[in-house]
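Study this protein:
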Amino acid sequence: MANLKEVRNRITSVSSTQQITKAMKMVSAAKLKRATNAIVQMRPYATKLNEMLANLSASLEDASSPYMQVREPVRVLIITVTSNRGLAGAFNTNVIKAANNLVAEKYADQLRAKNVSVVAIGKKGQEYYERRKYIVIGNNNELFNELSFENVSVVTEAIMQGFINGDYDRVELVYNHFKNAAVQYIVTEQLLPVPKQDQKEAEKAPQVDYILEPSQEEIVTELIPKNIKVQLYKAVLDSHASEHGARMTAMDKATENAGDLLKALKLSYNQARQAAITTELTEIVSGAAALSNG
């Protein structure tokens, strides 16, 4: 059995850790509220814009936008949205694992030919792919310091320009979708070329005959770049809220585990203390008996 000093040191250490995890949980809860408000306000706009664009582009016989040109995916760009910090459970690991599975299943030939590039939004993803000698484009770790549509749009515009220039034939996006503080799930979607609406979905959608000014082609051409920026911004907001939700949940569980460990350590401490007292009493009794016999 461990001596009293060792157990006391462990109790002090675990108590300090528990205080830290409690503080981190409270910080994440405060940040989660702001991040949740941002994604809840953004999501209806992004969804409606996507639906409107799909409705307009589905009726066009030939999409004139360069962002809808489907090419053989010789060069592929993967966008991963992770975080700059850890201690968020499996938040970052799940994104990286999903991106790796996507590459292994769909772009294994491109990977062998070194035609798979990565734009890592978040320090954890960037460090992972740089260590494994992937082609990592840019450094976007500062986005979360001042998260805004304008800052994300700078990254999006560079990606869109690379697609037009033929640097990438396909752009895939992997991120955590925020459902609530305890639930986040991985989403993998094609960002470029902009996927066309499925014919069956187009038939199910309510058909509205709009009078358009300017022409339908001009509106679609203007909406597509805006929609691409909005979709990536929504993904970053989703990931940002998911990060704080995952960290809050992880720190809550860590605090609970620290409490369980403290109970076990205090029990061990009391047992060790009781054993020490019993030993001392036995020695005193034995000594007294020896003196009386003498």
